[in-house]
Amino acid sequence: MLFLKKKFIYWFDQISMKDVPKVGGKNASLGEMYQKLTPQGIVVPNGFAISAQAYFYFLKKTGLKKQIKKILRDLNVKKLDNLMSKGAAVRELILKAELPNDLKRQIIEGYKKLQQQYGKNVSVAVRSSATAEDLATASFAGQQESYLNVRGEAELLNACRHSIASLFTNRAISYRADQGFDHFKVGLSIGVQKMVHADLGCSGVMFTLDTETGFRDVVLINGAWGLGENVVKGRITPDEFCVFKGTLDGKFKPIIYKKLGKKELKLVYAAGGRQTKNIKTKTSEQDKFVLSDADILKLAQWAVVIEKHYGKPMDIEWAKDGKSKRLFILQARPETVEAAKSNLTLEDYILEKTGKVLVSGSAIGEKIGTGEAKLIAKAEEIRKFKAGEILVTDMTDPDWEPIMKVAGGIVTNRGGRTCHAAIVSRELGIPCIVGAEGATRKIKNGQPVTVCCAEGEVGNVYEGILPFNVQKTNLKNIRRPHTKIMLNIGSPDIAFNAAAIPNDGVGLAREEFIIADRIKVHPLALLNYKKLKNKKAKKQIAALTKNYKDKGQYFADKLAEGIAQIACAFYPKDVIFRFSDFKTNEYAGLIGGQEFEPKEENPMIGWRGASRYYSPQYQKAFLLECQALKKARNVVGLKNIKVMVPFCRTVAEGKKVIEVLKKSGLKQGHDGLEIYMMCEIPSDVILAELFLDIFDGFSIGSNDLTQLTLGVDRDSQLVSHIYDERNPAVMKLIGQAIRAAKKKHKKIGICGQAPSDFPDFARFLVKQKIDSISLNPDTAVKTTLAILAEEKRLKK
């Protein structure tokens, strides 16, 4: 009996990644970290692996292998009834079988040794680790079950048997068939690991890249109160934290953003024979982040160490013990979706028209899907689902995988960007919207819908089948022109994706988008919150700023997050942020804004830009913008940020603004800070050399320059036919501005729409030897090709 001489138990300090055939990817990875990363500060709870050899021994000793083969002989995973009946029959066989006595003995001895280290009746997590699991080419995540808070020898043996049975869940059988794995060549190792008291603390997952775009320079962390199953399975909307790797060296605190999740439930230990139970979280828990800034940064640092060790992007589970207050790493596996994508082809899904929005949530991926909605309440109903339908449900779990892979789109009431539905839909390349509250109530069964994830961070479900197209661009062979091609970025949501387009940085980052979309409140309404007369506005502000006693700090923090998200995407390339350039009517449209804004006949040439920043009526609000930029530069460490002053009418105004910036801590020239000016008023061009004596460079705003040169209100349909950036008067002024900058040896670029819309205008700028042209992301590749052609022509 050769099997009897085999060793079935391997402690974490005895295994590493070379032992995947013996203990599976998950356990091999735990051993690898326990052995090699603990010295670098990574804390992993100890435990042992029951080898895959033990699994094969169990099948042989009990005679189950022949019986299972017989059951699966006519398996057809495309027929749900067939799959479900076969899976149930196999699992029943395994659960009725007894573990061989010699195997039982070794498992119990291992548990006793764990008790010696951690205390009597220590609780453990029992997790499966398939020998083909967690490989870089195929994610088996969630295909088998985990059993938490297992205590005592009898419970442990029972959990081990259930773990073996989970190798034949419907989803696992289906997944193996789709991936081409032989059911009897995939073994199962079982990990037994000391439980962390996350029931009294928090836990979650983190990825060493952005899970939506594949952007490699951030760590994305999701977390919730209690044990981590709620996060992984999408039962709740977790907190989300994003950390920039580029300045994660101890000198800075590069937390790019923090998003508060609802965290509706908390998974805790249960008594009376049940291992765990879900309880509702208190309002105070929902309103509080699960991690401190110090914890966020420590986890991110650990993630970078783990990624560096494995040499690839990683998917990591973490937990914080509520008793000891210590952080732990529970698992680490290769991230298999975004990491495998090629960045050589740019694929843009474009919705040709919009319609009535039925529901919105977090967009997963950037695709669009259409079809009839199919409302499924529970796993038993999945046989009703037809290929191409849009799956609408409360949330998914691994049992739903057989229908998810044929869905035209997925919409869930609950879940965050790292929940089960999100992970699987990314892997399958299916548009998915998670956390779409009320989806199962607002979308009718059989209703034709469009699931759109191509409009930024927010995904929308539209009524009806809407037309869309897909644009593909091969980036492999695009050369870089001599003229710098920069990008215009408004929303931080598009920054990580836009950074993949060949570029030389950001020539115009607009603060207005961040203020309108993320902050929503007029800065003076925040600073004068207690004195507000508008009760509705006051109530709205209270809801948005519930974790802020200092309401002005809310403005500075949220603006800093948006600024940092854009700047880190392009780091270390220059990113030029233009201070807010709302007009009075636009400021008045912000929450609480009407109490602080005058009514102007022509806001386009009224109180805007530089004239606001030094004004006694607005300067305190402007200082919040300065505070946000200082935080992004000095705390997050993004020294690639430059600033730009819009609508500066006179040299005297420019000097006043530079002085305000200096007093706020944004001193020109200090720590590489450059201050640019928008060149968009005829006076800016006429006195260009004087302006350039005090500013570091110009960015030509061709939109306003055209309007003010021709005396045309660009918002008026009556005179819109006159508005043309290619008018000789406008082009003469632009040429004059470029020559003045060259004479003064100052930088000059353009950030207006004209180069994007008119190839001949772009060619004109190249002839004038402009330093940079900043373009909208959707036109950058096309215009780059036109500029390359013009530069080649000029060389002849």
The CATH architecture classification of the largest domain is: 2-Layer Sandwich
Question: How many H/I helices?
Answer: 29
Overall shape: it is elongated
Total beta strands: 30
Structure description:
This protein is of the alpha/beta class and 796 residues long. The chain folds into five domains: 2-195, Dna Ligase, domain 1, CATH 3.30.1490; 199-340, ATP-grasp fold, B domain (D-amino Acid Aminotransferase, Chain A, domain 1); 351-473, Phosphohistidine domain (Glucose Oxidase, domain 1, 3-Layer(bba) Sandwich), CATH 3.50.30.10; 503-673, Alpha-Beta Barrel (TIM Barrel); 677-796, Phosphoenolpyruvate-binding domains (TIM Barrel), CATH 3.20.20. It is 37% helix and 21% strand. The strands form six sheets. The protein has an eight-stranded parallel beta barrel, surrounded by seven helices. The chain has a seven-stranded mixed β-barrel with strand order 15-19-18-17-16-20-21. Helix 11 links the parallel strand 17 and strand 18. The N and C termini lie far apart (83 Å). Residues 133-142 have low confidence and may be disordered.
